[in-house]
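Regression test case RT-17, inverse folding.

Input:
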């Protein structure tokens, strides 16, 4: 004996099966994106490169208006930092056996101009050099600065790779 399902019955079964889910979806409002915090004007995403290719002992310090925090760094060397508007920020990158680097960030004019009407996202890379290859030299100060031009809000980037003799450490006396 052959079983046949009447087409109307098939449609009725399918409707009965999916009807409750359709009501649940219609009754639940769509999720909205998280509200943007107006205090967070700039997002920095950076990628670190080190010779050893391991990021386990890399430290990224973020000093915002006198308060210091540590930014998490992925094993791929990526870090993301959200900065408030009207802030002076110092980023410090450290890894044992490598020269430390500092970058200053000024978010005072990040909200100026047409581009500043939404959260700014700046992406950049940092290469950490091994101390043994630098011949006893270190950086004279911050290696770069990020800022925004007054009025237009355009990104302004400066580099400074000036090297100076590293401070000699005196031997410990017991």
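Golden output:
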């Amino acid at each position: 004996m052959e079983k046949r399902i009447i087409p109307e019955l098939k449609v009725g079964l399918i409707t009965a099966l999916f009807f409750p889910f359709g009501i649940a979806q219609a009754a639940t409002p769509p999720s909205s994106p998280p509200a943007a915090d107006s205090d967070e004007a700039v997002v920095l995403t950076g990628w670190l490169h080190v010779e050893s290719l391991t990021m386990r002992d890399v430290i990224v310090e973020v000093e915002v208006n006198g308060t210091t925090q540590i930014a998490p760094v992925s094993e791929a060397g990526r870090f993301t930092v959200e900065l408030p508007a009207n802030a002076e920020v110092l980023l410090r990158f450290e890894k044992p056996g490598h020269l430390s680097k500092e970058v200053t960030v000024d978010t005072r004019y990040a909200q100026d101009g047409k581009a500043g009407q939404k959260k700014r996202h700046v992406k950049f890379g940092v290469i950490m050099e091994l101390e043994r290859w630098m011949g006893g030299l270190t950086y004279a100060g911050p290696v770069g600065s990020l800022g925004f031009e007054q009025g237009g809000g355009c990104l302004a980037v400066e580099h400074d790779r000036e090297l100076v003799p590293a401070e000699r450490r005196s031997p410990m006396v017991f």
